[in-house]
Design a protein that fits this description.
The complex is a heterodimer of chains A (282) and B (157).
Chain A (H helix, E strand, L loop, with lengths): L2 H17 L1 H8 L6 H11 L2 H10 L13 H26 L12 H20 L4 H10 L3 H11 L1 H9 L4 H9 L3 H11 L4 H8 L12 H15 L15 H6 L4 H18 L7
Helix pairs in contact in A: 1-8, 1-11, 2-3, 3-5, 4-5, 5-6, 5-7, 6-7, 6-13, 6-15, 7-12, 7-13, 8-11, 9-10, 11-12, 12-13
Chain B lengths: L1 E3 L4 E6 L3 E7 L3 E7 L4 E7 L8 H6 L5 H14 L8 E6 L12 H15 L6 E4 L5 E6 L5 E5 L2 E4 L1
Parallel strand pairs in B: 1-3, 6-7
Antiparallel strand pairs in B: 2-5, 3-8, 4-5, 4-6, 8-9, 9-10
Helix pairs in contact in B: 2-3
Classes of the chains: A mainly alpha (282), B alpha+beta (157).
Amino acid sequence: MNPEIVERIETDAAAFAARHRDAAGALLDIRTSSAAAVSGRLDAADSRIADIALNLINSGYFGLPRNAKSIPHAHEMMGGERLAQAVLAAWAHGLLSAPVAGYDLPAGDLWRHALGVSIASENLAEAVRVDGGRTAFTAGIFHDIGKRVLGPYVADASDDIERKTEEGVSFEAAEAAVLGIDHAALSGRILSAWHFPRELIEAVRWSHVPDGMDPPSLLADLLHVSNVLCLTIGIGMGKEGLKYKASPAATKRLNAKIGTLELVASHTLQWTNELADPSGAV
Amino acid sequence: MKHVVYVGDMKTGEREDMLVTHALGSCLGLMVYDPVAQVGGLLHAMLPLSSINPQKARANPYMFVDTGVPTLFKTLYHMGGQKSRLIVKVAGCGKPLGNDAMFKIGERNYTVLKKLLWKNNVLLQAEQVGGTASRTVHFDLSTGRTTISSGGAKTDL
């Protein structure tokens, strides 16, 4: 591990977070904003987000009885918290759609993986009857945002990381050993700079090793299980393949059975395919 | 012509067609080829048994091994393929690190495939299954050649 590289990664992460901090602040506040104020917040972030959010909202996943005609209309129909899920996802679509070096993810695949994990997390929460499905959805959307920053460093150090994983070390542990930080920790730092809720940040940071949390967090467990599930079924699987450790304790804490996971997987694939390109015309 | 087979999908073709599927993790990649009729098909099935979601299986049989595999064989028979000539290969069926039984989806996919083939007296000619790798399959229907790309390396199956 080279301290200069660690410093450069931290600088890059801080710059990335700063570049998008205003948008994050405007969009996070939608949860508690009035319908009248919501459009202004979207315009303050990026006016294109409204069209993408409306496509997500009217997709069927959000279960509205009829199409929302505008963001304020959607706010009236679904409330600020549910609207914020869609709006944050629409914003993330722009952040996550580019190809990601290092993980060999072509254009769209990081977004597809984020979407898959968010859908799986929310569906799994409902299936095992634990609270926090909506927070888990948003955590899923942003859980790999750190890959946007770490990707070029992973590409440069790919041989060293590969050698580590050949010793049986999981991929994120190999990242930490070689680069000094892993993508989940970096995601946590970015989300912290954007003032996401503490519970969500911690769940993202521990999403690969949820057993390390004391006390355990069902949100981290939802994220962990959903992430492994999406990778196993190939949703946004990168160069590292399945080199992540699944925690039996996390599935046990969630009381998830094999049939539950497979049912969630089948729903997840369908919804991910339907929502994968939300940038089309409204 | 190149056809990409996505997760929970199947494509068939003939002669000059190339069937490709990416990101095979725990999913089953099944390649079936008749060298005389020069027809073949590639199935990318995600889960072992359709009984967990019969409604989805009716809408999309390719999502499941137990519904996708028979559909692939029947489609090839309709295209002129003959059972006695079919060359059957399989790739994928991997699993994450650790030994969590909950995530042995790949092993269950493989087991269901083997049972189906055994019951129907079909032999598996080649396989590259298990492990943690992400695999991409290129299936050339002019020759039946099947190439697996994984971790920067290419091998013939």
